Amino acid sequence: MAVNNIVEIKHLTKIFDDGKNNVKALEDIELEISEGSFTSIIGGSGCGKSTMLRIIGGLENNYQGDVIVNGEKVNSPSREKGFIFQDHRLLPWLTVKENIRFSLPKEQKKNDELIKKYLALVGLSEFENALPKQLSGGMAQRVAIARALANKPKILLLDEPFGALDAITKVNLQEELLKIWQKEKITMIIVTHDIDEAVYLGENVVVMTPRPGRIKQIYKTDLGTPRLRTGVQFTKARDEIYKEFFKEAEVPFSYNI
């Protein structure tokens, strides 16, 4: 595995078998993701993009091929792989602060400064004693991000984390996520069905085919810093990816990001 690659996937195939039927979710995926990068994975419903993310995160371990993260083959979840879902999954009986504390390893349970640091990072210092029911959807998702980051993962995996939010909240959280990525310099991979979101957040956008999911194309967005949702570069990248969903294309064998 190359020194600067934190994820390396070789010939990944995933088949779901319920005893009666076999469903091939992923077929012969080849992908490399460099450390510190931000990658978007996009495709239609059922294309296997969330399944691939779960395999990278160790939540699915019955697959064919090799999936290597930070130099080790993935067989199970670990603290070096943070996961954020569409549902924030906060424990409703615990305060914001205690939700974060609950996720920490034993040696860090009493580290209030660590908890305060990551609440400040997501702009929720004043809500450390609030219960989840007292938070908006966007605020709850910020807590989920803080909770994942407090474990200091090498890679953050986001499975449609803003899919249930309104448009304005979604845009605000996208901005916050970019700031966190730039500050923490952590590798991020987001799965989304929103092309604009994929282009705006990802340095690289991986386009998946319908089931069985394969990599159809990878685009480098080259939006620069600061990123803009308008302008030639954004419009060009977005239009190219929109067109990709409506044309037949031969699937290349492998990619190296």
Entry keywords:
257 residues, alpha/beta, Rossmann fold, four-stranded antiparallel beta sheet, 7 helices, 10 strands
Describe this structure in a few short sentences.
By secondary structure, the protein is an alpha/beta fold. It has helices at 49-56, 96-103, 112-121, 137-149, 167-184, 195-201, 232-244; strands spanning 5-17, 22-34, 38-42, 64-69, 72-73, 81-84, 155-159, 187-192, 204-208, 215-220.
Question: What this model shows, in words?
Answer:
This protein is an alpha/beta fold. The chain has helices at residues 49-56, 96-103, 112-121, 137-149, 167-184, 195-201, 232-244; strands spanning 5-17, 22-34, 38-42, 64-69, 72-73, 81-84, 155-159, 187-192, 204-208, 215-220. The two termini are 13 Å apart.
Per CATH, the class of the largest domain reads Alpha Beta
Order of helices and strands: EEEHEEEHHHEHEHEEH
Mean pLDDT: 90
How would you name the CATH homologous superfamily of the largest domain? P-loop containing nucleotide triphosphate hydrolases
Give the helix level as a range of percent: 25-40%
User: Major sheet: size, sense and barrel closure?
Assistant: 6 strands, mixed
Task: Return Rg in Å.
Answer: 18 Å
SS summary, helix count: 7
Oligomer: single chain
